[in-house]
Amino acid sequence: xxxxxxxxxxxxxxxxxxxxxxxxxxxxxxxxxxxxxxxxxxxxxxxxxxxxxxxxxxxxxxxxxxxxxxxxxxxxxxxxxxxxxxxxxxxxxxxxxxxxxxxxxxxxxxxxxxxxxxxxxxxxxxxxxxxxxxxxxxxxxxxxxxxxxxxxxxxxxxxxxxxxxxxxxxxxxxxxxxxxxxxxxxxxxxxxxxxxxxxxxxxxxxxxxxxxxxxxxxxxxxxxxxxxxxxxxxxxxxxxxxxxxxxxxxxxxxxxxxxxxxxxxxxxxxxxxxxxxxxxxxxxxxxxxxxxxxxxxxxxxxxxxxxxxxxxxxxxxxxxxxxxxxx
Length: 327
Known about the structure:
- The protein has helices at 2-32, 37-62, 67-92, 101-126, 133-156, 169-200, 205-230, 234-259, 268-291, 305-326, and strands spanning 95-96, 302-303.
- It has a single domain, classed as NCX, central ion-binding region (A middle domain of Talin 1), CATH 1.20.1420.
- Helix 3 (67-92) runs antiparallel to helix 8 (234-259).
- It has 327 residues and is mostly helical.
- It is globular.
- The longest helix has 32 residues, at 169-200.
């Protein structure tokens, strides 16, 4: 048991450390190439913090051959990003969503790609012998369209002010490579430990993917969010979280479709329920911040301390639901 816990703890530590190195190097490179802070959060930093989900997914498919863990990882990670991480961030420092049209439309992009992924998941759940490579191509296409739109928005904004890089490009690339190494080994041992833990406690692999693995791979977003909130830079945290959710869906889900074409799990009904929950949570979040809906004492266009507490309660209910449902 101690070896299993050591695998999990060591994996989480390596994932967090590797992602931190990648994020730091990415930010420094972005500053070097004159990219704005919000663009960094929604694209570069989000991509960096999504690498643990990518690495964990690859390890889940290759090392333990578990599509359940791989799918549960991206679903649970997205739910954790919206409820757990945004909840913690808004408790530390209230989040006010800009009235600017571009920032609000970012949330719509997240909702659209979530709906498309849900439709694809539903189709494959009912047609498990279908070749999913074509659907994966659709998601990859959406991924590149998404990046192009972000770049166009960046060009349209002439008020961006770049910060001075803290260190050289060589150091940045070195940190990037070291971070990738930490991600690989961290995800490998974390996934192995998670599966062994599931066997020890007779817990299904699906719930391990939806909770433990998803939480572990969301730690970089959590760390980034807390630091950004403490520095009164909550917009960076929000951009990172929303961008990470998009990358998880259009990038990592597509990877699963390529690697395991026609091999959707028999227990996909449980995963279908969770992806519907994820979609509902995403819709409610986007509807509130896009249209400024006021709920109880929660202000419009804002996520305050009350919002954060509500989000954490919902996340606890979500986790408990999965545990009771799958055991």
